[in-house]
Specification:
Radius of gyration: 11 Å
Structural class: alpha+beta
CATH architecture: 2-Layer Sandwich
Low-confidence stretches: none
CATH topology: Translation Initiation Factor IF3
Shape: globular
Number of strands: 2
CATH class: Alpha Beta
Strand order of the largest sheet: 1-2
Number of domains: 1
Mean pLDDT: 93
Strand content: 5-15%
Order of helices and strands: EHEH
Number of helices: 2
Length: about 70
């Protein structure tokens, strides 16, 4: 994420597996205002692709991915 972009919320999904990180991400995004950033932490190997598909379908943007 860019240096100036700070997450409004951090969602810790470490240790959780599909589909829980996606469900929790969806629930947290619904609480944010337009332009606010949600940081999602996950060690689920499927989370990256799940979240990319979710963002594309719903019109959200993934700012940065780290492994």
């Amino acid at each position: 994420m860019p240096e100036t972009a700070k997450p409004k919320q951090t969602l810790d999904c470490m240790g959780l597996y599909c589909p829980i990180p996606l469900f929790q991400t969806r629930a947290e995004i619904d609480k944010l205002q337009v332009g606010e950033i949600l940081e999602v932490l996950s060690d689920d190997p499927a989370a990256e692709e799940d979240l990319k598909r979710f963002a594309k379908r719903t019109g959200h943007e993934i700012i940065r991915l780290e492994r």
